[in-house]
Every structure is written in C-alpha cells, then in structure tokens.
Amino acid sequence: MPNLPWEILNPIIRSLDPFQAKKAANALSFIDEDESHRLWRTIFKDDAWIKMALNCGSDPVLIGANLRTVTNSCQAKKGGKPLYIVLRANDWSGDTRYAGVTSLRRSLRTDHCYDQKNHEVTLPKLSWYNTANKKITVPKIKLNVKDIVFGAEIMELKGKTTRKLFEQNPLRSNFCFYSSGNICTLASPNIVGVGGSISQRDALTPICVLNLPSSRHQGKIWQFTIETPGCPPVKPILKNGKTGPIVEYRY
C-alpha cells in the first residue's frame, strides 16, 4: 500500500479521522498533509475526549480566522498575536458539559495552561520536524472552551474578542468539524446580526449568529450565537416565522 500513487492514497487518508490518519501515516511511512487533520492534532494530543463527545451525538467544531494557516510557519513569527479559536461541542444531550473541562484537558496538548476565569486554554508556540525533516511551526493558540463549561446556546464575549474570530475585507471566518475533514469558509449571508446578514466586523456586536452546516447530521444547521456583555434586548427573526434558522435580530 505505501507504493500506491498519491491520487489513490489521498482519498483513503481523507476518509479517516485525524488520529486514524496519523496512525496510518506512521505505519505506512508517509506524511499526512491534510490541513484539517493537522489542525485538530495541533490542539489535541489524543482523541479520547473527541470520541466521548461523538458517542454522545455531539458534533465538535473549531471556529476562528485563518485556520488554514495554523501549521504554516510564516504565521508563527516571534511576538505574533495568538490565534483565537472557539471549540464548540454542539451537544444536544449536555453530556460533554457533565463530563467537564477536566475531561477535555486530559486530551489537550500537555503543555497547555488554563485560565479558569475566562475559560481559555493557552497552547504555546510549537515547532517540530516531520518524517521528511521539514520544520513545522504552529503559532500560540488561545482556545475558548466556554461551551464545554456551560453548554449554553448563547456565548457571551467582549466585542474585541468576537472580532478576533474574523478577517475583514471581506468579513469571513473558518470552521472545521472533526467529522468533516475540511476547513470551510464562513461568510455572509451565514453571518447574521441586527438587521440581517452582515459584512462588517463592527456589525458583529452587540449580537451575531453564525450558521454552520453540520458534518454529521444531514440538513442540520448549527447556529452559534455570540453576544456582548450587557447586550440590549433583541428579537430573533426566524426564517419560517416560528421555525427555522435565525435570519436577523431586531431591537
């Protein structure tokens, strides 16, 4: 199998999850270059927590700007700002919250530190050489784990923190479901705020919702709502009146 052409081997590897792919790569002496696999393995040292979450019916996803560049050494310059990423379990059952953040931390890289006040995990800048002797460097990462602690549908974040999740011109972010094997782009009209879909970072506050198509549940759209502390009362407007996704907020 190691002698198979990459055109045949690549689809096989992409059908595996990040840690299955790593085991296959080690056994068959090739390099797993899949960017989504690298992303998850940059944050997690093993898949114990992820397996638990998946067994509960959850749909874990990472959300943040520039996720595709996590393993790009040019993004990890000395003194660079940490990459801010949110981890969402998308857990209908609430079991991941009952398991607690301690269960999650056991699966994260061992060199992390945890800010209990802000529910953020800091993963320091990391460099290593792959089997081809190529140096791989990832930047310092701040991982928001509030969803794992509280499991609330709405996450409260300061405006400046929310803006860290997005690039501007055009307004966009990235998301990566563990089960999908893809890093996807999130942009308007799937970023919704007061008055409807938004395309400017200033419009992310006081409240916004991100529409994330599920990788595990066909036709399911996970809606991730972020509001600033002291958000004024707003009314969500649903696509079908009383059902469906939120398409705008109104004061």
UniProtKB/TrEMBL annotation:
<protein>
    <recommendedName>
        <fullName>F-box domain-containing protein</fullName>
    </recommendedName>
</protein>
